[in-house]
Fold this protein.
Amino acid sequence: MVANVHVIGGGLAGSEAAWQIAQAGVPVVLHEMRPKRLTEAHQTGAFAELVCSNSFRSDEWETNAVGLLHEEMRRAGSLIMHAADRHSLPAGGALAVDRDKFAVEVTQQLENHRLITIVRDEVSGLPPPYWDNVIVATGPLTSPALALALQNLTGEAELAFFDAIAPIVYLDSLDMNICWCQSRYDKAGPSGDGADYINCPLDKEQYETFIDTLLAAEKTAFKHFEADTPYFEGCLPIEVMAERGRETLRYGPMKPVGLTNPHRPGEKPYAVVQLRQDNALGTLWNMVGFQTKLKHAEQVRVFRTIPGLEQADFARLGGLHRNTFLNSPKLLDVHLRLKAAPRLRFAGQITGVEGYVESAAIGLIAGGFAAAERLGLALSPPPRTTALGALLHHITGGHLHVDGEGGARSFQPMNINFGLFPPIATPRAKKRKGARSSKTFERKRALSARALADLDRWLTGPVSMAAE
């Protein structure tokens, strides 16, 4: 009889890892401390609960790296992508999900799998020695006891950063005489119709007033031990972006491009706040890019200065949580094993990837490695030319700023992007208007086509990630 693999953590990475192991025919014990013990960000005991956003970002695989990662994971039999596709919401070219139905779907699939045993309890400290094949997927909010044990084992000082959460408003509290529904450039995504976002327009005076009010608002004070913790650059609080320059937001989450206000034909807004559907009923809407560390009362006051949100009723206000991740290029091998204790593998955000999809992707890879090892097989890492392989290579050895011992001095969480892929030669674009943009798209399409071809060869190799 094949011995169990243990997976610690029931977030996106742990859920995906457990699924991949079980689908390979290996029994797995999935340990999750919720709901017995909740974290600062989670509210339920469901597996794969989404806490920061309901968006998996772009679903366009030909020219977008995260969309390519979606497609690769689908081809590799991803549980997370299956649940996301089943419970997708209109979001233009993005893949957004009903967070509650998504988590219920993942939970039911795991609970009903004959090879998955679920244990609802905290693993405090290092797993017992007889657990000889373990995946630690405890996420950015690893319990203090386990985090301390890992720190003692590796000798590494804890690395951490802050993630911010955006507010959610009730649809019926918005003024649709001011707001309107439209995706940028009327783009219709996999579950949308080209009118997937609610847009709140600001003229120049309103924008300047909003920036002044935002900058003057009271912010959450850090505790003494948090003072030197940096933000993740891909998820900056809106007030931090505003502090970098008054026009920063207008060229970021509040950019007015690709939108036409039907209430004022022929008049272009100076800036726009977009809201994205957050549940299947369409009653809750997420303020896109408005993650914040403002005090709760200040959020209500400041955000109600936005046209259309004057009477906004907030289902959830924004906030901050502190994330923990490993110095992976120094501590992990190419199979995600801890060099100091190879029986321990790591997956998800704790490895230094950022984003729901990236976390699940590392869980998928770790699950494949763990199952193959238990079956006495050798599974090679996915090719570096794939999104899965590029992401894995970055966190296990592709980071450039290294010290004399091969450890990363400035290793920071990373989203998937085409800059992580090995370069590819593309035909020269003709010299004409837009040639640079055309060449960029050709390069991305070539990278994506190569990635999927190489992935398919890898999946049909001696050990398949999509094994039934």
